[in-house]
Design brief:
The structure is a single chain. With 203 residues, the protein is mainly α. Helices cover 83% and strands 0% of the residues. The protein contains ten helices and no strands. It is globular and about 50 Å long. The chain starts with a helix and ends with a helix.
């Protein structure tokens, strides 16, 4: 049962990390820039933060879901983070500062900061865990099973990010103009952030 919940956690984490978001877009950019080692450190940092965020989602599922205001604020926070990072990315692509250059070169610190500022894993894992429980696919009644499941989610997101970085490195030769590579992530993040704002205020 411990191995089963680990595999299920890793699988759904891998699948759930595929849609474009702040973290996987930035990892893809690092791969395009041939910075796979930095992307690896970035992915490790993301996996580390995924652990406590998933644990919070599982442990406080009832408390969080009983307050719609909390879930709405997660959506608003995601919109703010993506929009801010999009603008920052576009700005630093044109006028790189000493701070932005240092942050770009430090994959681990960059991954930690952006993961902490991007707690979308919490509402995602609340929904996924509730569904898996309702289907009888997981049983997290023991500490071993719980932490095996949570560890699986960290492994899953790490595997997906590493795969993205490697795939991006393979196709990086198609992007000869560095200008396009540097502006693309910021543009996508800004568009996603504005769309998230639209969804928040139109709901």
């Amino acid at each position: 049962m411990v191995l089963q919940v680990f595999i299920i956690g890793a699988f759904f984490s891998f699948i759930g990390s595929i849609p474009p978001g702040t973290l996987n877009i930035l990892v893809f950019q690092l791969g395009l820039e041939q910075k796979v080692k930095i992307a690896l450190r970035f992915a490790v940092a993301v996996a580390i933060i995924e652990y406590p965020y998933t644990w919070i989602a599982v442990e406080f599922e009832d408390l969080i879901t009983s307050s719609p205001v909390v879930l709405e604020n997660f959506q608003l926070l995601a919109a703010i983070v993506m929009t801010t990072l999009g603008i920052f990315s576009l700005w630093t692509a044109k006028k790189p500062s000493a701070f932005s250059v240092k942050l770009q070169q430090s994959g681990f610190r960059r991954g930690l900061i952006l993961s902490i500022l991007n707690p979308q894993a919490i509402p995602f894992w609340i929904g996924v865990t509730a569904y898996l429980k309702s289907q009888g696919w997981i049983d997290l009644t023991t500490s071993w099973r719980l932490h095996s499941y949570v560890f699986g989610t960290s492994v899953g997101v790490f595997a997906l990010l590493l795969l993205l970085a490697v795939m991006a490195q393979k196709v990086s030769g198609l992007f000869q103009r560095n200008r396009i590579v540097s502006l693309l992530p910021g543009t996508i993040l800004l568009a996603l952030g504005l769309f998230a704002f639209y969804q928040f205020f139109s709901s």
